[in-house]
Amino acid sequence: MAALATLAACTTVTNVTPAGDGNYTVTTQVRGGMTPWGEVKASSLKRADEYCSQQGKQMHQVDMQTHGVRGWTPQEAELTFACTAG
């Protein structure tokens, strides 16, 4: 049981914030564990997609930056996106 607790990760996804020029940002941070980068990025993409869908628009990815080292330092995926008419 102790081994499972060591592998557990804590994931935080920020609120969507304006970034200027019609763009927005959202960041996912994972502390601990061995979470695959694809899952970290997917959390940011999902939040952005939900945000745009609420406006009846589609999410368009502008940029994705990643920081950290899996298993050693917190992993972050910072997504910059725009909501465009479908």
Describe the structure.
- Strands 1, 2, 3, 4 and 5 form a five-stranded antiparallel beta sheet that branches.
- The protein is 28% helix and 45% strand.
- Residues 1-7 have low confidence and may be disordered.
- It is elongated.
- The chain has 86 residues and is an alpha+beta fold.
- It has helices spanning 2-7, 37-54; strands spanning 10-13, 17-20, 23-31, 57-67, 75-85.
- A hairpin with a 7-residue loop joins strand 4 and strand 5.
- It has one domain (11-85).
- The relative contact order is 0.24.
How is the topology of this model organized?
Layout: H1 2-7, E1 10-13, E2 17-20, E3 23-31, H2 37-54, E4 57-67, E5 75-85
Antiparallel strand pairs: 1-3, 2-3, 3-5, 4-5
Let me know the average pLDDT. Answer: 91
**Total number of domains:** 1
Q: Would you list the SSEs in sequence order as H and E?
A: HEEEHEE
Low-confidence stretches: 1-7
How much helix, percentage-wise, in residues?
A: 25-40%
What portion of residues belong to β-strands?
A: over 45%
- Helical run tally: 2
Q: Determine the structural class based on helices, strands and strand pairing.
A: alpha+beta
Integer-rounded radius of gyration: 14 Å
> Termini, distance in Å?
48 Å
How many beta-strand elements?
5
- Largest sheet entry: 5 strands, antiparallel
Give a short summary of the structure.
This protein has 86 residues and is α+β, with helices and mostly antiparallel strands.
